[in-house]
Task: structure prediction
Amino acid sequence: KCMKEGFRKHMEMGPQLLGGYIYDLSHIFDEESDIYMDSCHVWEKGNKIIAKEIAKVILPEIERAEAKRK
Result:
């Protein structure tokens, strides 16, 4: 828990340093169980959650880029 809180605090500066292209997904497993197979690798359930969260972030960006090309 302490490590997660430290990471989240550190992430607050990320978007400013990288021009907005960094997203904190550290919260996505907060209400989940049986996600990790070891200290950092996730089971299929975790991968599905990660994929859905990434899609929420990148799909609007893809749609904006496509709209600009039209």
Q: What stands out?
A: The helical segments are 2-11, 14-17, 44-69. The mean pLDDT is 81. Residues 8 and 44 are 24 Å apart (CA to CA).
